[in-house]
Amino acid sequence: PPIEVARWVGRLRASLALADELDVARLLDGVKLLGTESDIFSLPSSRVLDRTYVEIAREILDGLGPSAIERRHLVSLSDGTIAFEDRLRDGLASHGPCPRSVIAGLAEKNAAERLRIIQYSVGTVDDEARARIDELAANVADAFAACTADLQAPQRYAFVEPVSLVRVGKVVDAVLEDPDGEAIPLARAEEPGACAALLDWAGAGDVKWVLGRWSLRCEQAAIVPLSCARGSRIARLR
Fold first, then answer.
1. What is the Cα–Cα distance from 135 to 131, expressed in whole angstroms?
2. Residue 90 scores a pLDDT above 90
């Protein structure tokens, strides 16, 4: 199946294992249009030309089997949109370490925000790019609001896992806050090690932003931390 459907299977299995009936219902609701004219995969891919991305996170995700998919998260320095490049663990993708800058001469992005990079060059992440990423981070309320369309539309919920760049302020009583003092909800049950490391670094005043994938369990939304700006560098958390 398409890799997005393989990832859907991995998410469904996880929700069944947790007995999260609401998430199971959401995921099943999202696949009803597969194979119809309204199928998200029937929409043509958009062409991306001469755009600079910075890959700021990678994670290993379940698909048809455990740990079957590698996902790279890339932020566009022009408009702040975040796309992802998925591959099966033995599949092909663009080359290079993480973090890195990727100048995409030619790429394609489908309606599920999956990027296929065709012609590209790779470089290091310089100070100007890091400063631009700092600018693109948003407070937690604005970041969540930007993702609500994906979380509320059944088909997008099933096949698009939104991520956000969230500004980090400080840690108060073991709670991470943005600069406005709003709590940043962390998915501690799903990724306890990454959450603990993030809180430790943020408590030392060393974190400017965190990239997080939104996870919806029952009625509670939280972010799985993937990477953060730690001092003058981008540090991976998964």
1. 6
2. no
